[in-house]
Design brief:
The complex is a heterodimer. Chain A is an alpha+beta fold. Chain A is built from 18 helices and 9 strands. In chain A, α4 runs antiparallel to α5, α7 packs antiparallel against α8 and α16 runs antiparallel to α17. Chain A is globular and about 85 Å long. By secondary structure, chain B is an alpha/beta fold. In chain B, about 25% of the residues lie in helices and about 25% in strands. Chain B has 3 helices and 7 strands; from the N terminus they run αββαββββαβ. Chain B has a 5-stranded mixed β-sheet. In chain B, a hairpin with a 2-residue loop joins β1 and β2. The longest helix of chain B is centred in the N-terminal third of the chain and has 18 residues. Chain B is elongated, with a radius of gyration of 19 Å. The termini of chain B are far apart. The model of chain B has no long low-confidence stretch (mean pLDDT about 85). Classes of the chains: A alpha+beta, B alpha/beta. Chains A and B meet through α3, α10, β7, β8 and β9 of A and β3 and α3 of B.
Amino acid sequence: MQVKDINDKVSPVFFEKHQRAIYKALEDKHTTIEVDTDDPLSTRMILNMGPQHPATHGVLRVIMELNGEKITKCKLDVGYLHRGVEKIAENKTYQEFMPYTDRMDYLAPYSNNVALCTAVEKIADIPVPLRAQYIRMICCELARISAHLLWLGTMVMDAGAISFFIWTFRERERIYDIFDEVAGHRFTVSHSRIGGVTNDLTPESIQKIKKFIDDFEKELVDWHKLLDKNRIFIDRNQGVGTINHKNGIDIGLTGPTLRATGIAYDLRKVEPYLQYDKVDFMVPTRTEGDNLARYHVRMEEMSESLSIIRQCFEQMPTGPIRTDDAKKAYPSKDEVYYSMEGLIHDFMMTDTGVCPPEGAESYHAVEAPKGELGYYIQSDGTGHPWRLKITSPSFKNLQGLEIIMDGEMVADTVVIIGGVDPVMGEADK
Amino acid sequence: MSNSAEKSQTIIAEIKKAHGDTISDIGENYGYPMVTIKKEYIHSFCSWLKNEAHFSFLVDVFGTDRFTSEDRFEVIYNIFSLRTQTRIFVKTFCSEEDPTVDSVSDIWTSANWNEREVFDMYGIRFNNHPDLRRIYMPEDFEYYPLRKEFPLIGIPGSIDLPNTTPDID
């Protein structure tokens, strides 16, 4: 018998209309199915998933053509979270625009702040004190851990283990508490400033971070024990969503997704920024290019991050946390409250901000948790950028997802999306 | 630092030798080599970059509206060489009357979405692009939002939005 929908299978014996309606509603939930009439066995169909679907990590829409349980081809539809951030940037001063970057990759706001600030510092030639650079590095690595924790929790949940999500979120909560102590905000931190950071790390926050990295190391060991040899987890991820390094480069994958194919492309090594050339760390890579490889890469990145934070604490000097030049960065609040010049400079920084030279254009990229996050700035000599282009890693990885998904099983879609780990806020800008 | 400056000087010399007659301008900009080239030569130059100079990783393609009377739009390619670990920027221009540039998506597949984004935001059409649709905005949107004449608040009524008030009959 040709089965077209659930209603053909069921034979209700009581309240027939009600039962049929409920099965129809079940059938229509999340999915729209079109049956192809040319297909005698009716194994081919179009499946639409998203944009409102809990497993797509935001508002990603995937349209798949299925043959039985296999995805013959798929298309992605992005743009449901497009807010025109680049247009907004052209109408804001550089510092005013920074809070918008928090809302781009909202899982690692600190990396976004640092990416913008370093790009502006490069084009306007603003020096950054050494201590501020180390504070930025520590917080960026904490942001990386926090973003990878969310990936780990949701990806393992997509593979079927619910309780793991709660454990990773417990650790994420501790990182939020640290950011609360450091920046005054838990989520959208906006702690970095052009020319430095807002305020120094307090003794409490240093103590909190140190305690966190000690505890988290033990936690990581436990998670490795739970997942590394877990039969269900491996079966669900090994050989799923495979892409080789040649296709990976060609389609422009970036971040852990590219490193899982065997390319050690990490901007912290390739084009070192801040003080990353002073710390000793490794770039984890795998050659398999499947979901399990991405898992291993990200897990190892988290332990590398811990070691970077430890080295930063050892190397961090004392000193100022923002450049002491009122034409280039905000003056300290002490100056603003107690001197006329400080107040004027504060006003000028808020009103006009830093003005890079006319006609200058420069690119600076950082290694965000998802990959290469770059800002290309073209200046017309005023306090607003003429053009600010954001090179977002999730956008690049999503394009790769279109290739990765072809030929996979439909049941693996959520695991693959979880493994590639796109953030729609960043992909859609 | 001196190492990277050396590497960009090497690549600049290499390009001058091979394409000295087609490029309009070449120089170092904030540490990266930047090549300006007429749009007629962009496809052949890019395939040379990939096949001969090993610039295998296309990071980004994006447009800019310079708002000038001639050569209004600028398309910039951000390409990385994994072998020599250098980055290069290639720039080309097109006019407002004829906003077309040859697509490089047959050289680097990843140019596909980036060129769609440029088309969506600036209305620059890419010749021989396999799938030139808008990427962020819906297909029935008629404007190009990142052009300078497009207002920040948007154009009321340019996009159909679902009714947000509850139906009261």
